[in-house]
Amino acid sequence: MRRPAVRNPYPERMAIPKLLTGGPFRFGFVATLGVLLALLLGLAISSLATALTLIFVALFVCLGLYPVVQWLEARKFSRTLAVLTVMAGFVLLMALLLWLIIPVVVEQLTELFTYLPKGFDQIETQDWFITVNESFGGALTPAVEWLQKTASDPNTWLAIGGGAFRVGVNILNGTFNVIFVAVLTLYFVAGLESIKASVYSLVPASKREGFISLSEEITKSVGSYLGGMVILAAMNAAFTFILLSICGVRYAGIMAALAFPITLIPLVGSVINLVLVTFVSLFTSPGTALIVGIVMLVYVQVEAYVLTPRIVGKAISIPGSLVLIGAMVGGTLLGLLGALIACPVTASILLIIKKVVVPRQNLV
Q1: What is the pTM of this model?
Q2: Membrane spanning segments where (predicted)?
Q3: Of 64, 5, 40, 76, nearest to 340 (Cα)?
Q4: Within 13 Å, how many C-alpha atoms sit on residue 149's CB side?
Q5: pLDDT digits over 16-72, tens only?
Q6: Backbone angles phi, psi at 76, to 5 degrees
Q7: Measured in Å, how far apart are the chain's first and last C-alpha atoms?
Q8: What is the CA angle 124-127-128, rounded to 5?
Q9: What tens digit of pLDDT does each residue of 327-359 get?
Q10: Quick check: 306 and 313 in contact, CB under 8 A?
């Protein structure tokens, strides 16, 4: 016998959803399917996390390079020639950096692993360490002995790297990821206009004009910001290398290579690099560390108040508190990459709120 349909006792109110009229078994079954589908989708996204991250990196690099294409087009370059020029320059720059940096970094890493046990021995003979150790009643001696033993044990470095085989696998994966990002960036640069046109065509015609205006503003702001930050990071890395080389600090190449990605982090990156290079300079002498620290502190001030306003300008204007919060959240989710892209993502969200959400609220 067919069960009669459940009637709504309150016809003037919203009708009861059809799902709720099929009984508890049907509702529970559909709800369970929804939960399972959500879990499978989350698992798929988790499995694709590395690939999605690389695609995201390539897109951000593309946005950083695209203002150069537009600048060349303003100089009477055809679009094809401008894109080809940027692509060729990007490939040459990547090849030049790898050719200059990798041999130096490999050589100095080898020297560093060899020097660390001897370096800890030399610390114990320096006057500043003897004075500080005596003031603490010899408390630093056991710590230095433990560091000497740990640094001289090859198993320590294998454990840090996850074993020799894992280190090799990580190097190969890292090399493949760099090549993948470089190639994908070139494709994005070449086809960015067609990609944007395809996305714009999916937006309803009534809202397309506002969507295009907002998207172009975000793209321009993010591109200008990323390009400026890369220039500032390169200048900071070059200054770090020159300063440490002049002061006779060993491993200047490694510190410069580390300074580039570190100083890309907004607000705190330059300060982290200052602390790091000052600490490494202690292995040379306290006087050298003091000089390096003072000079780097002056450079950080010049970078913050002179170079950043001129190079980055007002491409992205957000409160400093939100920059720190965004960097912390991004770093927690995606590590160093999340900290690097936190500022442009935060600025994009604020721009959407300002251009879309606030005007709608004012109409209510």
Answers
A1: 0.64
A2: 23-45, 51-69, 81-102, 178-203, 224-246, 252-276, 283-302, 322-353
A3: 64
A4: 6
A5: 556 556 566 676 777 788 888 888 887 877 777 778 778 888 888 888 788 888 888
A6: 70, 20
A7: 51
A8: 90
A9: 777 777 766 667 777 777 777 788 788 877 888
A10: no
